Amino acid sequence: MMIKTQEYIQSEKEKFVSELLDLLKIPSISADPAFKNNVMNCAERLAEKLREIGIEKVESCQTAGYPIVYGEKLINPNLPTVLVYGHYDVQPADPIELWASPPFEPVIKKTEIHPEGAIFARGACDDKGQMFMHVKAVEAMLKANELPCNVKFMIEGEEEVGSENLGIFVKNNKEKLNADIILVSDTGMLANDTPSVTTGLRGLSYVEVEVTGPNRDLHSGLYGGCVANPINVLAQMIASLHDENGKITIPGFYDKVVELSDEERAEMAKAPFSHEEYCKALDLKDVMGEAGYSTPERGSIRPTLDVNGIWGGYTGEGAKTVIASKAYAKISMRLVPDQDPEEITLLFKNHFEAITPNGVRVVVKPHHGGEAAVTPIDSVGYKAASLAYEKAFGKKPIPVRSGGSIPIVAMFEKELGLKTILMGFGLNSDAIHSPNEHYGLFNFYKGIETIPYFYHFFTELNAK
Ligand code: BES
Ligand code: MN
Ligand code: MN
Predict the structure, then answer these.
(1) What pLDDT, in 10s, does the model give residues 17-68?
(2) For the purposes of burial, counting CB atoms within 10 Å of the CB of 267, is it exposed (0-12), middle (13-18) or buried (19 or more)?
(3) Protein residues within 5 Å, CB atom, of ion ligand 3
(4) Least packed by Cβ within 10 Å: which of 52, 223, 244, 306?
(5) What residues flank ligand 1, with Cβ below 6 Å?
(6) Domains plus CATH for the chain?
(7) Nearest CA to ligand 1 atom 19
């Protein structure tokens, strides 16, 4: 099965990598308007790549933000259709000084985990490297004349900033996006010798808070001890959001959380996990989290609340004695089924306002959010993915719920009625969103090899 496709992949490996390196040289940072031209260029380059391999009706669909690159190859209306989703935008590269090589000048280096080499660049894993595997896998199937079903591509440029315009695009193009399954490589797997398929994503609620004390910055000697210090107050308010058991104290926060059965938890616990290796990789003496749950559980089936950034007052060289007028924090809450992001944001806002002491004023500003998603393992899509991994890795993949979020996945289900299969090939150690992001060559190639098998099994299982 797929023999010519696999032969083509083996013969073109080097070309595939050099093409990916070209895409990685474009700093397509969606969050920073200074990179607007680069993001637009990246969309154009990607559209060209799709045209080059024989994808039809390729267009850069304009939105209120960055374009969505769409294209299709429809071979027979009676066959299933796979809709591939990915993103060509990347996170900002800062702090740049912590990169061993410039983030947009990709280099290949060997590491302990990637003895065959890994590509170091922003977006190498999240998501250009993973998204591009799909382009090359489809190229191989087309070149080998072995594409077994229809395929559509929908690659966006605003995933890292909340996918607001993709939501609108999906609502307005239901006919065009008609398909049987959505296929995404934008997550990870357990290890290169332990394949896994992501069966869940957490949702997200994200807020920014502003605490205002006195109407101007004050001398900390003349006023210290007499007025509320917004930074002290903010720190206290944030600290009070967890109790001594690591539970979040916002009233109602856990009300809709779906608890897993003991059987499901036992099943999850079968996935390999080493506490020692986990701590060692992060230079930690111990882990910390909600009482009563394991580290893998805390990072996937349990909701969380984390400060992502906090600032205020004087942070320059030396000491300045000052009580700041304002303090700020950005706070994310990772959600699980069936928590509603809007409801959680409201619960947060009400609680945060309620615990505000009289000496300060508080403003809570909501950012983007999204719902959690789960893929049932008894679905045709999951079975096809499982068979594909088994064929490519010689091992059955383990189903794993991830802690990350791809808010658009729940939206696909709501608007298009479609399930998403998350065939991620990244590793947690690939440093996505961090300095020195990288993606293993093994992972890049293995992904390109595995994807055609998914098309094969998905088509076969649908015909039955
Ligand atoms: N690809 C990631 C999400 C991811 C990574 C899920 C690894 C599972 C495993 C995606 O690009 C991302 O970064 N999502 C954001 C949310 C988004 C709204 C900015 C996240 O999870 O923080
Ligand atoms: Mn991503
Ligand atoms: Mn990301």
Answers:
(1) 999 999 999 999 999 999 999 999 999 999 999 999 999 999 999 999 999 9
(2) middle
(3) 126
(4) 244
(5) 126-127, 159-160, 162, 186-188, 201, 204, 368, 402, 404-407
(6) 3-201+372-463 (3.40.630.10), 203-257+303-369 (3.30.70.360)
(7) 160
